[in-house]
Amino acid sequence: MQALYGQLLIGLINGAFYAMLSLGLAVIFGLLNIINFTHGALYMMGAFCAWFLLQYLGLGYWWALVAAPVAVGAFGVIIERTMLSRLYKLDHLYGLLLTFGLALIIQGLFRNQFGSSGLPYQMPEVLTGGLNLGFMFLPKYRAWVIVASLAVCLSTWYVIERTKLGAYLRAGTENPALVQAFGVNVPRMVTLTYGFGVALAAFAGVMAAPIYQVNPLMGADLIVVVFAVVVIGGMGSILGAIITGFGLGVVEGLTKVFYPEASNTVIFVVMVIVLILRPAGLFGRER
Fold first, then answer.
1. Distance of CA 108 to CAs 35, 88, 183, 210, 213, Å?
2. Mean pLDDT over all residues of the chain?
3. 18-56 pLDDT per residue, tens
4. What distance in Å separates the CA atoms of residue 122 and residue 114, rounded to the nearest whole number?
5. Measuring CA to CA, which residue among 28, 9, 34, 43 is closest to residue 221?
6. Are 218 and 44 in contact (CB under 8 A)?
7. What is the mean pLDDT of the segment spanning 190-199?
8. Burial of 204: CB neighbours in 10 Å, binned 0-12, 13-18, 19+
9. What is the distance between the alpha carbons of residues 83 and 261, in angstroms, rounded to a whole number?
């Protein structure tokens, strides 16, 4: 039972990162129709930004949680304005190829500068140690990651699905000319939406730094799994990204207990089954 509880905790932690990263991808695809392959590299940039702030400015974890998403989000805005905005009228494949190339460039630059070994990042002192729940020992930082990711994911869902701003965003992607006629600056809204999706990836990178260390390739393998999560939940579905991210993290953790050999492939097996039975995903809509 101790092994089961431990793997469930690991599954929830992995699910928290799957949910946050797939949420950013779902926001960008659902509202902008961009398949953003740079997401893993930007997640890595968020972790490195936290490391830079600590090493060179002495700013710790809590400052990094605010500063890193803002800095990486601003970098995403530059990418959208200078590159992606030129591709909106072209086939989606061009945006996919551009973002895939950018991801390789960003990862290559960081790898050349810092190598492939991980750089340690210290967790905040207030979150060190853990709680004895009787049936298991719960590290405080892991609990914080789960709670914070849930709060961020549900807040994002609420803003997009239940507020006037979210209505403007959805309408701007469906009929930009009509929304612009009402005085809404649609290009600026599109740019800020992309920046927000990127900032979510950077936020996840900062939270991952104390657990997985800061590594130039930390997003390279994870992004493949996250894309599978997005496909299973339904491309562009905000709620689907959140539920599927946490759910598949738990499924992966349970698989490590009962059938460890399949733990690295179980998410992709689920993806194949879902695509056969429901091609639009569990929460996606047929187009």
1. 21, 27, 42, 23, 18
2. 89
3. 999 998 888 888 777 788 899 999 999 999 999 999 999
4. 18
5. 43
6. yes
7. 91
8. buried
9. 42
Report the distance separating Cα 251 and Cα 248, nearest Å: 5
User: Which of 117, 142, 145, 108 lies closest to 220, judged by CA?
Assistant: 108
Query: Token pair 């992709």 is at which residue?
Result: 268
Please tell me the distance from the alpha carbon of residue 275 to that of residue 261, in angstroms, as a whole number. Answer: 23
The tokens for 251 are: 């499924």
Q: How far apart are CA 169 and CA 255, in angstroms?
A: 39
Adjacent-strand bridge partners of 119: 214
What is the signed CA dihedral for 56, 62, 67, 73, rounded to 10 degrees? 130
**Position of tokens 């207990």?**
257
Dist. CA 178–CA 190, nearest whole Å:
15
**Of how many residues is the chain composed?**
287
Handedness of CA 201, 226, 30, 233 (dihedral sign): negative
Instruction: Return the HEC string of the chain.
Output: CHHHHHHHHHHHHHHHHHHHHHHHHHHHHHHHCCCCCCHHHHHHHHHHHHHHHHHHCCCCHHHHHHHHHHHHHHHHHHHHHHCHHHCCCCCHHHHHHHHHHHHHHHHHHHHHHHCCCCECCCCCHHHCCEEECCCCEEEHHHHHHHHHHHHHHHHHHHHHHHCHHHHHHHHHHHCHHHHHHCCCCHHHHHHHHHHHHHHHHHHHHHHHHHHHCECCCCCHHHHHHHHHHHHHHCCCCHHHHHHHHHHHHHHHHHHHHHCHHHCCCHHHHHHHHHHHHCCCCCCCCCC
Structure tokens at 12: 């929830």
Token pair recorded at residue 162: 């239940």
